[in-house]
Design goal:
Elements (H helix, E strand, L loop, with lengths): L1 H17 L3 H18 L5 H15 L4 H20 L1
Helix pairs in contact: 1-2, 1-4, 2-3, 2-4, 3-4
Length: about 80
């Protein structure tokens, strides 16, 4: 579920970012991360904390483009982690 959610979010976000629609791109990935966090079992505290910190760091970005770029990078990293 995690892999599929991240892949779907990235596949949908890429054209938005490429078209300069950075806010919707960021919202899409942020929503996917929220979906993943809420689907994790209660014992998965470390992944939940990682997702929460990722969202906090993205919120600190001052521009929609910066936020989208940060979230896309984080989502790709998470995808690489679950694919290995």
């Amino acid at each position: 579920m995690v892999r599929a959610t991240l892949k779907e979010a990235l596949d949908a976000a890429e054209p938005l970012c490429a078209a300069g629609k950075n806010a919707p791109c960021a919202q899409l990935i942020e929503g996917a991360l929220g979906d993943i966090a809420s689907s994790l079992s209660p014992g998965c505290q470390r992944p939940r904390k990682l997702i929460a910190r990722t969202k906090e760091s993205a919120a600190a970005e001052t521009t929609p483009k910066g936020r989208a770029t940060f979230l896309r990078g984080a989502a790709r990293t998470l995808l690489d982690m679950v694919e290995d």
